[in-house]
Amino acid sequence: MSLASKSLTIKLNESDPRSSLIQSLKREKILKSESVEDALLDIKREDFVWQGEEALAYIDEPLPLGDTGQTISAPHMVAIMLEEAELSIGMKVLEIGTGSGYNAALIAHIVSKVLKNTDGPLVVTVERNPKLVEFARENLRKAGYEKIVLVVEGDGSLGYPQGSGQMIYDRIIVTAGAPFIPPYLCRQLKIGGLLLVPVGPNLSQTLVKAKKIETSDGKYDLRQQKLMQVMFVPLIGQSAHSN
Ligand code: SAM
């Protein structure tokens, strides 16, 4: 057996719970691209769940992050958002809602694949809960992504740097439910960039995919597409839910 086919056999071994979850996401046509599949294969979800939850890591459900009241999102939801984000190598990405750091690690895997030395972090992820900031930093350090991912403690509804009007990011991915699209996130997206954000009331939102386009008067507009109904914990902040 050649080395290549041996590694393929290992990768697609369905008796391994990670591989069988990935195969099931492929059968359901949720997982479509090689880059997202490779990231899901290489990043171990059990290293990002709360201590004691490791045995549940490959059940396709959100899991509680200790007593924080927050969750690591279900793998199918993570895969849907990563596919819709249309990520590619070298992109600068802002994630709002770090939680465990799992989604940030997957994003980092995709955008930094062949890049050994990046000029600063490619992924910035913002989390408001200090306990989760520490948890995610440690998880990302163990996974080897501490140089690619910057974990910031703060209110991500104002973007990062907070309140900046600069167009910085190729992609912005919000993993908490916002009452409306936070204006600073629109400003910080580059022209041609994509924003993914669940919009709606607490625990019942529509996942919106928006593309920033330049208008004839030199301003910009967001071309919005409603993808599906989703259920995220609320985005809480100055430009979001108040609690
Ligand atoms: N992406 C995470 C992961 O991979 O584990 C899961 C995110 S969890 C569903 C949503 C997170 O958004 C929570 O950790 C919550 O504390 C955070 N959050 C809510 N409002 C926020 C805000 N304004 N700024 C930053 N983080 C916020």
Mind explaining what this structure looks like?
The protein has a seven-stranded mixed sheet. Helix content is 28%, strand content 23%. With 243 residues, the protein is an alpha/beta fold. The chain has one domain (2-232): Vaccinia Virus protein VP39 (Rossmann fold). Helix 3 crosses helix 5 (102-111). It contains seven helices and nine strands, in the order H-H-H-E-E-H-E-H-E-H-E-E-H-E-E-E. S-adenosylmethionine binds next to strand 2, helix 5 and strand 4.
Short description:
This protein is of the alpha/beta class and 243 residues long. It is built from 7 helices and 9 strands, in the order αααββαβαβαββαβββ.
How many strand segments? 9
Record the strand order, biggest sheet: 5-4-3-6-7-8-9
Domains counted in the coordinates: how many?
1
* Number of contiguous helices: 7
Taking pLDDT < 50 over at least 5 consecutive residues as the criterion, the unreliable ranges are: 1-10
CATH superfamily: Vaccinia Virus protein VP39
State the CATH topology.
Rossmann fold
* Ligand roster: S-adenosylmethionine
SSE order: HHHEEHEHEHEEHEEE
Helix share of residues?
25-40%
> How far is it from the N-terminal to the C-terminal residue, by CA?
57 Å
What's the architecture, going by CATH? 3-Layer(aba) Sandwich
Average pLDDT, to the nearest integer? 93
Strand fraction band?
Answer: 15-25%
Backbone shape? globular
**Biggest sheet character:** 7 strands, mixed
